[in-house]
Amino acid sequence: MATETPVDARNRMRDEIPEAFTWNLSDIYASWSAWEAGLAEFEQLLPGYAELRGTLSQGPDRLLKAFRLGDELGQLSYRIWYYAGLNYDQDQRDNAANARRQKVQILFAKAAEARSWFTPELLRIPLTTVRAWMSASPELAVYRFAIESTYHQQEHVLDEKGEHLLSLSSRLGDVPHDIHSMLSNADIKHPVITLHDGKQVTLTYGQYNALLQTNRNQTDRAAAFHAFHETFAASANTYAAVYSGVLQRDWFIAQARQFKSTLEAALHGNDIPPAVVENLVATAKSGTEPLRRYHRLRKRVLGVETYHAYDQLVPLIDCDRKYEYSKVIDEVVDSMKPLGSDYQRGVRQAFEGRWIDVYENPGKRSGAYSAPVYGVHPYMLLNYNDTLDSVFTLAHEMGHSMHTMLSEAHQPFVYSDYTIFVAEVPSTLSEMLFFDHMLSRTTDQRERIVLLQHAIDDIVGTFYRQCLFADYELQAHRLAEQGEPITAETLSRLYFDLFKAYHGDSMTYDDSAQITWARVPHFFGSPYYVYQYATCYASSAQLIQTITSGSLDERREGVERFLELLRAGGSDYPMNLLKRAGVDLSTPAPAEAVVAQLDRRVTQLEQEIERL
Ligand SMILES: [Zn+2]
């Protein structure tokens, strides 16, 4: 790797960042004209659907041809979408990239329309007939799970006319997310605050998070917190109207497809019983005592008179250790040792092949993600800022990317995409392994405290907060389902009541936190997504136990089961895949294990603090 540039150059322009720390998008296409050619190729394939229309019942060959056309378009769609999308995300002020991205969206809507007859026509063929075809044709049998699960959804598939109408509405359905993204990224005016020492700070997302995680002055944190949330509160009514758009769309789709609720509609495709979410939310809500105990400990250690939401993330003790990107690469690779040397080699390849866009630059999309560009390799977007948190984010996204790699290598295209229900298992497990590695190698008691705090904050953020969010989404969607008014006030009250129910008397509440719901991108971009962070966290908590404890044989078997889960991609229902890996989410046991784990970690932390 190239030499690290100093981190105070964080706000440098993109072209000032050494190439080694940027992703190499020419692995997808060499140029925009090559991308244009991909677009044209995609468009030329579309009439293939019209040729197949009305012929599926003629025999297995026609059905196979339709599936293969879908594969061809699907593989191409990854490239054309991500080439435009990743270019756009590296600087969202780039109108030309944005226009190209929209061009792909329009093309995809066209493709969905061209294909809209397919499922209804397939479903008119009796399943017994299709099963006989699959028995006779190994090539068609590849699509068995895809076919069986399509029939599983039969009761919720409309007739051809209905499906056509729904496909026409898909562009409308994307609008609330686009508005939210524009409002919160492209058009946002990040507030500038003055710290107690007179220094001025622009609260970009990266700076805001860094400030709450590092600034030891409570007045500064309070100022940042209020300014940050007031930015959202200033557009509260707009955010509420946009969110109402999300809720109404979900309820529209649920009703159009004859589901009893939006939750049922969201879970049906993956064959997950709604009780999984309802139990999860209930188990978390009744297991908040260790959470409150942690906040009471924090209040004591921080020595603050009143303890607030903005005091949750600041380190309990001073440890100004920075985790330079170049220096953590080996640590990340080493931490994956329990998963075997092949796995480690894959991780190394991601670092060396410029799969990662490391640093923040003006206009860059906030947050972090791993993008599965089929046929190329996964890409990772980071906003790395040298904090311990950003190293864990790196480990997290690496888990996603390895999942993508293994799934693509072992599954046919049709199953290469795993569901979000299992997606967060390898990423959280990756973080847990990294935590274990760091805790075992440090001899510094202060770093132990920092790491333990990180692990606890991780449980709080990945499990408790997501359960709270899931509860919020569930209740907000119920407002739409019951035809209740949805206003900024309603949504803020709903959020705030839940927040208080979780934290009880362990903190002092600030009114500006009420608007928090407006700044959670998942609520707008992927409803009923976040609960899966919690179920996945619970699954990982069980899996890591088998991987890192027990006899050598037991550990080996645990690793094999885990890797098998990754290799399996989306080849079965996620509940089945997880059951095979040893996790049963239809029981409260995994969630209860997290509550118990938090209880243990808080006790550990109390002891370390005592000793200090
Ligand atoms: Zn993730």
Ligands, ions, cofactors: zinc ion
Kindly state the percentage of residues in helix: 55-70%
Let me know the average pLDDT.
Answer: 94
**Alpha-carbon Rg, integer:** 25 Å
Largest sheet: 3 strands, mixed
- Overall shape: globular
* Structural class by secondary-structure content: mainly alpha
Number of distinct helices: 28
Low-pLDDT windows of residues: 1-9
Q: In whole angstroms, how far apart are the ends? A: 38 Å
β-strand number: 5
Oligomeric form: single chain
Which percent range describes the beta-strand content? Answer: under 5%
Strand order of the largest sheet: 3-5-4
Structural commentary:
With 612 residues, this protein is mainly alpha-helical. It has 28 helices and five strands. The chain has a three-stranded mixed sheet with strand order 3-5-4, sandwiched between helices. A two-stranded antiparallel ribbon has the order 1-2. 65% of the residues lie in helices and 3% in strands. The structure holds zinc ion. Zinc ion binds next to α20 and α21.
Produce the secondary structure layout.
Layout: H1 32-45, H2 47-52, H3 60-90, H4 95-114, H5 118-123, H6 127-136, H7 138-141, H8 144-152, H9 160-168, H10 170-173, H11 175-186, E1 192-194, E2 200-202, H12 205-214, H13 218-233, H14 236-256, H15 262-268, H16 274-286, H17 289-302, H18 325-335, H19 341-352, E3 356-357, E4 369-373, E5 377-381, H20 388-410, H21 420-441, H22 445-481, H23 488-503, H24 521-525, H25 531-548, H26 552-567, H27 574-580, H28 589-611
Parallel strand pairs: 3-5
Antiparallel strand pairs: 1-2, 4-5
Helix pairs in contact: 1-3, 3-4, 11-14, 14-15, 14-22, 16-22, 17-28, 18-19, 18-21, 19-20, 20-21, 21-22, 21-25, 22-23, 22-25, 22-28, 25-26, 25-28
This protein binds zinc ion.
